Amino acid sequence: MGGTAGNTPCASCKLLRRRCAKDCVFAPHFPSDHPQKFAIVHKVFGASNISKMLQELPLHQRADAVSSLVYEATARLRDPVYGCTGAISCLQSQVAQLQMQLALAQAEILYIQMQQDQQLLPDTLQHLNETTTQNNYTPQFHNFTSFKNNNVFCGDSFNKESMYGSDMVS
Questions:
Q1: Residue 42 contacts residue 50 (beta carbons within 8 Å)
Q2: Which residue among 11, 14, 76, 94 is the one 20 to 30 A from 3 at the CA level?
């Protein structure tokens, strides 16, 4: 499986100027038509380290490992100090800023809705007042303090102090 079609050496063997063997660990992951991919990884990690890492992994995990190595190497070349961590930190900062912008936008929407509701409230109250006046409706108020039921608290037995304790009374 060494090399690619037509016995062309893989990108790693080409860069390292060696013959690509049939069992070349690099060949499936670094084809000759993408030489920069291996060059970046080689520059950061070294061919020997990459070879050791890939040989320790099962075949089905190697492609993901190579993808991660390429990403980390690219990030490390862009930001030699922080590498991927710098990119992740930058993205987390952007997420936090966007979440704050979203919260502000939601608050603004709520504020506008409340203003609209307050503008509708006087009209609604006026309509209710006109309706009750036209129908000669007089609200009936009932006195439930004389209601006797052991399961219902009425009168003085129901107050904030008895419910929440004396420290919660305002």
A1: yes
A2: 76
- Nearest Cα to Cα of residue 31 among 9, 52, 53: 9
What is the rounded CA–CA span in Å between residue 36 and residue 137?
86
Cα–Cα distances in angstroms (integers) from residue 90 to residues 41, 87, 93, 121, in the given order = 23, 5, 5, 46
Selection from 46, 16, 45 nearest residue 32 by Cα: 16
* pLDDT (tens digit per residue) in 2-26: 554 457 899 999 999 999 998 899 9
pLDDT computed for residue 168 by the predictor: 41
Task: Determine the residue type at 34.
Answer: H
- What lies within 8 Å, CB to CB, of 139 at 6+ separation is 132
